[in-house]
Amino acid sequence: MTVYPQEYKLNCTKIGHYGYGISMSIGSTALASYTDCYDDGTDNCPGTELDSFTNRIRYTVDITWDGTTVSSGSISQSTTGDQMYHCVLDNPGGADRTRTLTIKVPATSPSSLTEVSKTTTTITVSWSALDSSDADGYVVNVTSDTDTVQTVQVEGSSRNTITLNGLRRGKTYSITVRAYQQLLGPASSTISIFTHCQQEGIYMYLVYNKKCYINGSYFWDTSVNAVTEAISCVLPGTSLTTGQWVRVADPDDPVDCNNNSASNPFRCTNVTSPATLSLYLAQSLPAAQEGWYKCCLPTDCSDHSTKIIFANVFRYAEIESFTIADLSPDMTVYPQEYKLNCTKIGHYGYGTSMSIGSTALASYTDCYDDGADNCPGTELDSFTNRIKYTINITWDGTTVSSGSISQSITGDQMYQCALDNPSGADRARTLTLKVPATAPSSLTEVNKTTTTVTVSWTALDSSDADGYVVNVTSDTDTVQT
């Protein structure tokens, strides 16, 4: 019953006199009709001869059933419940013959399809079972946004619960159930279920726009300004006791879930199990109220045993992260090369730059992510205008270079990513790479042989060095590092 749509054949076999007419139908709709048939050698009707001595001929029609419609070639007929087919044999001399065939099909779909529980990889659902006279079992269909994930047959009319396994964490699945007898009946209403992003009772997580978000994620104010666009914090495997959203800068004044004002622009909704508290803007976000918020579940933030997760709600555009990438741990590779990645999120109009000290390494103005895409960032998420900007850095021990730009520097390298919001509220992030400011002193030969050299030097303080790289060259080449 998991193969869908269902396909089968109707076979009507006649025997006897060679002259006749024959048809097959469902209700008043003819699926096949042949007149003036002669089996005496003319064979002008498309039956299959089974026995020439008795003029035994089989006629076949192919049927497709999609749950609501019977189709055969270009002919279709909507039907509900049992399917009653007729084969009629027309004898020109009288005594016409009729056979009726009934295929059992549930007339109604199971009702009350409901989520019972879920984990990161499973969903358990239940439904109201049909009477045993109306169903032999059920077929549960699970789809994602791109494909059918699984179709499961549940035998027995009284069985009304199933656990669906092998799912992916943090993904939305659409589920329907059908009853079956000889054929499948109509589908139930569809329910959508989002699997947990984390294991039960261990970690909290954030959900927004049917996606999982980690602790410390950023959310643009204009994208969380409706109850249907809320940020949800979830603690799987627990039931909500109280729970709170609290602005980190003002921990003694938690969000009032039921009222909003200039000093409290948010509202929130809750779900008892699993413990869920959703936050959304009920009015514009003042500058004084943007920034970090923490969600506490399943109890208030004053409870030291409660779980906590953080989210940043901001105006305009914001720097989500500023990081180093592709820096090799092998310090013998020289010169050293790495990347700086600065990721912005939020409003589509901005300018951005990266620099070391007062030297700009990259600068882009009048950037628009609304289709113009005139700045060379890499789009990570079009829904939130999340764009990553990357520059390549080369360090030769004295000079930082990026393309044609270079800057001599001693000691730690301090980089800055700046984000220019035309409406104000500019942003900046700094990132420091630890670099020894001085070389080890007193490099001295200790002893040597024909094939070895032992040297020593004055070690730097532990705060100034993690280790050392010794380079050995001859008059023609680097021998070892």
What name goes with the CATH superfamily of the largest domain? Immunoglobulins
Report the CATH C-level class of the largest domain.
Answer: Mainly Beta
Oligomer: single chain
Low-confidence stretches: none
Shape: elongated
Which class of secondary structure composition applies to the elements? mainly beta
> CA-to-CA gap between the ends?
68 Å
Number of domains: 5
Mean pLDDT: 93
By DSSP (H or I, 4+ residues per run), the number of helices equals 0
CATH architecture of the largest domain: Sandwich
Helix content: under 10%
In CATH, the topology of the largest domain is named Immunoglobulin-like
Radius of gyration, whole Å: 37 Å
Percentage of residues in DSSP E strands: over 45%
Characterize the largest beta sheet: strand count, sense, and whether it forms a barrel: 6 strands, antiparallel
Count all strands and give the number. Answer: 40
Keywords: Repeat
Protein name: Fibronectin type-III domain-containing protein
Pfam family, one: fn3
Domain Fibronectin type-III: 109-200
